[in-house]
Design brief:
Length: 363
């Protein structure tokens, strides 16, 4: 599919110069761009790449001399990364899901399928399920009894949605995600070593050897509008009340959300984050890759946690965290600097000790 420079400018709300009728069929890094591709040279450091590639049009940094760069047309954007969101939205043709319902799909007679929905091969939709209008459901998806999927959903290959799960409109689930699996909740008949350790922070006490007994999950998962779930995410349903994910929140690949967790609106949860049961996450929280959140704690609005941060206690609103255990980011950086200085400090102490021992003793 081809797009004129004029169409791209309109989609981005950006300024275009040169031949705005010029068309491109896709986007590329400058050095690899062909004549029918739009080069993404949004920073001066990419200027050399334009000379290596064959692009005739490019998105450039403000103030760039597009004619000196040998271009026939250029687009100027004040915020390059934000412009990428508009450009990719324009050019993304979406998943290859044919209109209508594939003959191999198995749909319970009581399910309600919205107008314009597209359902791919080998999809299984259970009793009482409601699918919103214009939803797109790719191959090998299963949606269990009583689930409700909002309008304009895009549910990709191999996603499994459990019983009674509810999603808002514009829900996106990437391949292999599981929403609404049983929570990981087990108990012993007598007090266990784990329970003792929670109280003593180290002593198991005289706990007996016992087997674990499952606590079944009677709740489900409630998901707001405009939520995206990455590939191979796992979101457990609640024990009694629902696990909740608020409007506009985005989960990266391999995120695990435990039972009864509540995540607020417009959060960004990056790859391999694990959130333990009954934790509560505020609005606009950012958890970088491999962060861990302890069970039954609260993280306030606008908290940002750097990569691999382990949060064991409540985090107040607006706190920026880093480390294991989590501390203020500036404190962690200072601590790490001090740690790096330790070998030199030990050497200096050893030299001082040696110098003191060599001094003559006073009678």
């Amino acid at each position: 599919m081809a797009f004129s420079i004029s169409e791209i400018c309109t989609a981005l709300g950006a300024e275009g110069v040169g031949d705005l009728s010029l068309t491109v069929s896709g986007a590329s890094e400058p050095a690899l761009a062909t004549a029918d591709q739009l080069a993404l040279a949004m920073d001066p450091k990419y200027q050399g790449g334009l000379a290596e590639g064959a692009a005739r049009a490019a998105i450039l940094w403000p103030g760039a001399d597009w004619q000196a760069l040998g271009l026939a047309a250029a687009i100027f954007v004040p915020r390059p990364r934000y412009a990428m969101s508009g450009l990719t939205n324009l050019m993304d043709q979406g998943p290859d899901i044919d209109p209508g319902i594939h003959a191999s799909a198995v749909i319970d007679a009581s399910a309600i399928i919205g107008v314009g929905a597209a359902i791919g091969p080998f999809v299984v939709i259970g009793a009482g399920v409601k699918i919103g209008q214009n939803a797109r459901i790719a191959a090998h998806v299963s949606i269990s009894k009583g689930a409700k999927i909002g309008a304009n959903a895009m549910i990709l290959q191999g996603v499994h949605i459990g019983a009674r799960v509810e999603t808002g409109d514009n829900f996106i689930a990437q391949p292999g995600a599981v929403v609404g699996s049983d929570g990981f909740s087990f108990v012993t008949p007598e007090k266990s070593g784990v329970e003792n350790v929670r109280q003593t922070l180290g002593d198991q006490g005289a706990a007996l050897a016992q087997s674990w007994t499952r606590i079944h999950s009677l709740g489900a998962v409630s998901i707001g509008d405009n939520v995206e779930i990455g590939a191979s995410c796992a979101i457990d349903r609640g024990t009694i009340r629902n696990t909740e994910i608020g409007r506009g929140t985005k989960l990266d690949n391999l995120v695990h959300v435990g039972h009864n967790v509540s995540i607020g609106e417009d959060c960004l949860i990056c790859g391999q984050v694990g959130i333990a049961g009954s934790a509560r996450i505020g609005n606009r929280v950012v958890l970088a890759g491999q962060c861990g959140v302890n069970d039954n704690i609260f993280i306030g609005d606008d908290v940002i946690a750097g990569g691999a941060t382990k949060i064991f206690t409540n985090a107040p609103k607006g706190r920026v965290l880093l480390g294991y255990p989590a501390v203020k980011m500036e404190n962690h950086v200072e601590s790490y600097k001090a740690l790096r200085r330790l070998p030199r400090l030990f050497k200096q102490v050893a030299e001082l000790q040696k110098a003191i021992l060599k001094q003559p003793k006073n009678d």
